Amino acid sequence: MTTTSLADEVGRRDHAAWKAPNEAAYRRRERSETTVLAALAVPGLLLIGAIALTPIAWLFWLSFRSGSDFTFEHYERLLHPTYTLTLQTTFELSFLVTAICIALGYPLAYLISQVRPRLAGFLLLLVLFPVWTSLLVRCYAWLVLLQRRGVVNSWLQDMGLIDAPLRLMHNFTGTTIGMVHIMLPFMVLPLYATMRSLNRDYMRAAANLGASPVKAFWGVFVPLSFPGLFAGIIIVFVLCLGFYVTPALLGGGRVMMWSMQIERNVTYHSDWGAASALGVVLLAMTLAILWGVGRLIGFDRIVGGR
Amino acid sequence: MLRRPATETQITHGGRLWLYVLGGLTLLFLILPSLLVIPLSFSDSRYLAFPPPGWSTRWYEAYFDAIEWRDATAMSFTAATLTMVISTALGTLAAYGMHTSQSRFTQLAYATFMLPLIIPGILIAIGIFLLYAHLGLNNTLTGIVLAHSVMAIPLVVILVASSFKSYDMNQEMVARSLGASRPWAFLTVTLPQIKTSVISAALLAFITSLDEVVISLFIAGGDKATLTRRMFNALRDEIDPTIAAISTLLILISVFLLGLTQLLQRSPSQQPTPGNEPSPRQSAKA
Question: In A, which residues are within 8 Å of B239 by CB distance?
């Protein structure tokens, strides 16, 4: 790159004097320098490889082992109703949370993209605040709010909307509320990034050509915001699939997610065969979704969110 | 005011009042629950009624008096500080190396760095648990720091790599043509100009470690339990108001760190990066 151009430059200047040996020397130096620079990434890669990737390869191996034999039994066991039901719950919850995040996140991102930059910066800060707040703090807040004699129930009763306290936590409802709260910023931020950068002249053109505001919004603005929307959907959905902490706390053991089955098999049964098979399936689902969507709209857009 | 056009298509502010209301309510939904914990932590009652029947600092006293909470806090902060140092150093080094070398190896390396964000947290957690069981690293500070560093390095790489995109590498070339060595040119010319991103990345690494739950649940037990592990177990059993006090302190730390990153971005030396690449942070926790 830059190194090359500089080397070329110097090489050209000294061309007359000692062209051949010099050029070769510069090439060699450039190559060795590139190697040294590339090597700077090695310590980090080694750490990730050793701590995160090696054990996952090991789990993959374990998922096909029974004693010293090769087996599919751990995967066959996943067909048991316990696990298929868990899979169903996991997908239902993930779809529901993603849908609510779109419903709440799209208008909010749209609003932030429409206001003056200073105000937008402030509103964005409000969206970022939950992201920087500890996950457990937010789960705790919801436990306090949603419990039987919690804030939400007492307010609803005071207003006369309900007679008896509603069951809001340790069930599907509480888990959904908690997860939407955690995931919403990851819908809003990529959406906002796309909406802010799209060309407003298209909206003017649509209005100028006689489209009603509603038609211009649905016909022009929404399609232009699709990259951000897709990015948000993928991030939220994939995070939901493997989510552990919030369902474990707010579900109170009644909402069984795929990740919780993994934890159970390790903690209570020390059943590494089942746990690793569950883990491999989860990873496969995650990668399949990312790969599929990556082929559709380009992977950089998902990762970068723009 | 409400009659003034608000958009290119001449919708008035009044005509989209519903949008302002809906957006406002959604923001309240995002912010309010966490903030509600703060007054609750000063309640004098065991029952978390709102508004609290009376005020006291008994839950803070309960927190500071309990040796297991104090130990867990010290453990978490030690681990977070060490994680910050290791992941910022390794991540910045890697981002610089990948940006300047641009070999075929670069793209593969970058993808590998992103893997800890893509792989579900629970899977990484049981993997590390399995590995550490064989290495004897479970329930050790070393083990916790290495595991947290793996989760933090990708975030550092993303932030620092994105700052290189807007940095003109020729400046370093100038320094070198004037006689500086490559490391010296990096330290004196490049690093001061990307320092905003590096510091932001360090803060993100710190909070990633401090808030990490899933891996810590498996590998940080016994007397090496982190704050998050103790909190998680306490939350599973009962809703103890001591946690409200701890939560309030954690919220203050979050606000402080978030404010710090915002102040850094305001400094004119660097373009602000709205959106803040937030996605990775959460996936580390999910």
Answer: 140, 143-144, 147
- The rounded Cα A295 to chain-centroid distance in angstroms is 17
In the structure encoding, which two tokens stand for residue A104, read together?
């709440």
User: Most A CBs within 10 Å: which of B8, B170, B171, B226, as the mutation test of the A interface?
Assistant: B8
Residue A235: domain span: 73-304
Nearest residue on chain B to A115, judged by CA atoms? Answer: B6
Domain count, chain B: 1
Neighbours of B116 (CB within 10 A): 24
Read off the amino acid at residue A260: M
Residue whose token pair is 């720091």: B145
Q: What is the DSSP letter of A51?
A: I
Question: What range does the domain containing B138 cover?
Answer: 68-285
Interface of A with B in 57-76 (CB under 8 A): 58-59
**Gap from A81 CA to chain B (nearest CA, Å):** 22
pLDDT (tens digit, 9 = 90+) per residue, B1-15? 566 677 766 777 877
Q: Same domain for A90 and A133?
A: yes
Residue A99's CATH number: 1.10.3720.10
Contact B128 A282 (CB under 8 A): no
Could you read off the pLDDT of B170-218 as tens digits, one per residue?
888 899 889 888 889 999 999 999 999 999 999 999 999 999 999 999 9
> Which residues from chain A sit within 8 angstroms of residue B8, using beta carbons?
200-201, 203-204, 207
A148 plus A252 within the same structural domain: yes
- Domains in chain A, number: 2
Provide the pLDDT confidence category of residue A161 given band limits of 50, 70 and 90.
confident
Same domain, A231 and A112: yes
Two structure tokens written together for B13? 């502010």
Residue with structure tokens 């978030």? B258
Asked whether residue B54 is domain-assigned, the answer is no
Give the residue from A248, A236, A244 showing the smallest Cα distance to A103: A236
Q: Is residue B245 part of a domain?
A: yes
Residues of B in contact with A178 (CB under 8 A): none
